[in-house]
UniProtKB/TrEMBL annotation:
Ranges of residues in domain Replication-associated protein G2P N-terminal: 1-232
Species annotation: Xanthomonas axonopodis
Keywords: Plasmid
The protein's name in its UniProt record: Putative replication protein
GO BP annotations, alphabetical order: DNA replication
Length: 351
């Protein structure tokens, strides 16, 4: 699904749009610089999207809008699921924003939207996978931090125990894998309404989400810097996001893990589970633990594996990451038609 869009949109308007200014004044009281803030436009469910006039100078009418935000959250109040139709989503978002702002775009502007002449500077694509529980998702992430390697990005960095980043600060593209169940519970994430829906929470708790962020230079390289390049007349382009994500995930390799079933790991004491993950990633527990602790774990922690045998770091057995993440999680049947954006028909984009 399309999760985040930053775009420059043709839309003539008379008065520059912003949300105020940030000023820097030096020690002598002189203005050093100023920067315009985005105006926040609230959605039906509490989310907001930033809007500002793009590159406006002189007395001529403003010609473009700069739009930045998460349309799925803006329309639905959550981003558990959404649409892969970037063109349809972009146009629906623009139409809703200009209506709220009281703008009157020209026929030429609307023709440009329909033709996809909307420049993109950031796109976030996501795909969801279901495991058995939130604890299993978190265990997968902890294991992947130690064992996963992504082409052109190397090993990932696990943040707060629930989000694994690859290339977090890249100016081109980055990938992150995270627990959706953990995210919706995070303070200030703006999806509180979902927590009151048991079926939605259950769906999120099983979800391991992959999110690919494409920035301006990478969008240019991929010839995807304009909305129209994501689709053609015969196809709204739903397969593009899946292809982009899978091409990155197929570049990820990870050592074979999960020698113990998730239910066994869940039942282990935290200290034993931590030691098991260290052993699984190739650490020599005999060298790390004191003798008494080592034998306590060996005899009572888990007797179905031999922790005295070190998992080899060299020449490991590799498997494609896409194997454990084999099948995308579909939108649940009970959610279809309930403020859920799923196709190119504008009437489906409801807030």
């Amino acid at each position: 699904m399309i999760d985040w869009l930053t775009m420059v949109v043709p839309c003539k308007h008379q008065t520059p749009i912003d949300g105020g200014k940030v000023l820097c004044v030096d020690a002598n009281g002189e203005l050093s610089w100023e920067s315009k803030k985005k105006r926040r436009v609230e959605g039906s469910f509490g989310g907001s999207i930033g809007v500002a006039t793009a590159a406006h100078e002189g007395p001529d009418p403003c010609t473009h809008l700069w739009i930045d935000g998460n349309p799925a959250k803006w329309f639905q109040g959550h981003n558990l699921w959404g649409t892969d139709d970037l063109h349809g989503l972009a146009v629906a978002t623009i139409e809703a924003l200009v209506e709220q702002l009281g703008l009157t775009p020209t026929d030429e502007d609307r023709a440009a939207w329909a033709e996809g002449r909307i420049r993109l500077t950031r796109v976030d694509c996501t795909e969801s996978f279901h495991l058995r529980s939130r604890r299993e998702v978190l265990a997968w992430l902890a294991s992947a931090e130690q064992t996963a390697h992504l082409a052109n990005r190397g090993r990932g960095q696990l943040m707060k125990g629930s989000t694994l980043y690859f290339g977090k600060n890249s100016r081109r593209w980055s990938l992150k894998l995270y627990s959706k169940g953990q995210e919706i519970r995070a303070k200030g994430h703006g999806q509180d309404a979902v927590l009151a829906l048991p079926h939605a929470v259950e769906w999120a708790d099983k979800t391991l989400r992959a999110e690919l962020t494409l920035r301006g230079m990478e969008l240019q390289r991929l010839n995807l810097a304009y909305v129209g390049q994501w689709s053609d007349k015969d196809s709204p382009g739903e397969g593009v996001t899946l292809e982009l994500l899978r091409s990155r995930l197929e570049g990820m390799t990870m050592t074979t893990t999960a020698n113990l079933p998730a239910d066994v790991l869940d039942s282990m004491r935290p200290a034993f589970a931590m030691a098991y993950h260290r052993w699984e990633s190739g650490s020599d527990l005999r060298a790390i633990l004191c003798e008494a602790t080592f034998y306590k774990f060996k005899t009572s922690g888990c007797t179905s594996i031999d922790i005295a045998t070190v998992v080899p770091r060299k020449s490991p057995t590799w498997c494609r990451c896409s194997r454990p993440l084999k099948r995308s999680a579909a939108i649940p049947d009970w959610a279809v038609g309930r403020t859920c954006i799923t196709n190119h028909d504008d009437s489906a984009y409801v807030g």
